[in-house]
Give the backbone structure.
Amino acid sequence: MLEKLRQEFEKKFGAHGDVRAYFAPGRVNLIGEHTDYNGGHVFPCALTIGTYAIARKRDDNKLRFYSMNFDKMGIVDTDLDDLTPYKAAGWTNYPKGVIWAFEKRGMKLPAGLDVLIYGNIPNGSGLSSSASLEVLTGIMLKDMFGFDVSMVDIALIGQYSENNYNGCNCGIMDQFASAMGKKDNAIFLDTNTLEYEYAPVVLEDAKIVIVNSKVKHSLVDSAYNDRRNECETALKELQEVIDIKTLGDLTEEEFEAHKDAIKSEIRQRRAKHAVYENQRAIKAVAALKAGDIETFGKLMNASHVSLRDDYEVSCKEIDILVDLAWAIDGVVGSRITGGGFGGCTVSIVKNDAVDNFVSTIDAKYEEKVGHKAEIYVVDIGEGAHVLN
């Protein structure tokens, strides 16, 4: 793979100079959805699929980007003196946004770059291709120019650039999982404090299976920012009657006691999801540590119902996938994962049921919606790193 990417880089940009390679993974969130901007807990893990970069410093101010995934765009030229986001710049707005965010922190690039990108995360699947690209750019800049930034800094810079340059008001989870992933572990992250611990995902007789609905979403254009605004308003209403900083500070009982302070039924449901989902994430990690995979699965199922009914970020195709999964013997739990409005489901499936799961979903989903899903049995991989 790496040799092929290097050859492609040489074809596009020439063979001279110090050419380096980088990788940043995508992520799947096992539970704790739409809690990361509500001061709650999340439980993502890095995948072995992600985004690769081959890069080399230039001796001028030019930035030249080429993606093997968007080869029809050709080489996209820009300049360090012009880091404005343009719609026509397409995917390059993500690495440009990170360069812009580095400069905001006083880390100005002394020279431009030639960069080739290749990703094997399905685009628009909800497995965080954008966060992967942002974190990839961060480790590339750290390595190429010797900037003094930690991996947590790189995650925060990626989030800042997506919020303020690309206009999606995402939380920290996606970038954190890509930067800080650890093989065979998920990250139990308190998004309010950024305290985290690695929790081994020991599924002795089960696998994590991701199903891509092939319904693409764009979080910038979707109701994602609306959900965030609804939660912020609900929080302000609750703060008039109870001393809290975030929705993640509340237990279920405290929420039920004070929910009438929220003046809209829709905002009540949004806030209920944020509070209950945070508690589900805490309980799910405790269950996993105790080896109680059945409870973990039940909490995943409850998470999907809440995302479908209270948060309303599911869609017909995703609900079909989850309903099909729930009906298959050997499925421990299944839910939508990611921002929503399409994308993927994540399921935990007993080893002896995986083949039946794949064949059943493959046939029945196409029968119901008219196109196939993509199914991946995945491994948990390392966070972003320099490739030798």
Summary: The chain has two domains: 2-200+382-387, 206-377. The radius of gyration is 21 Å.
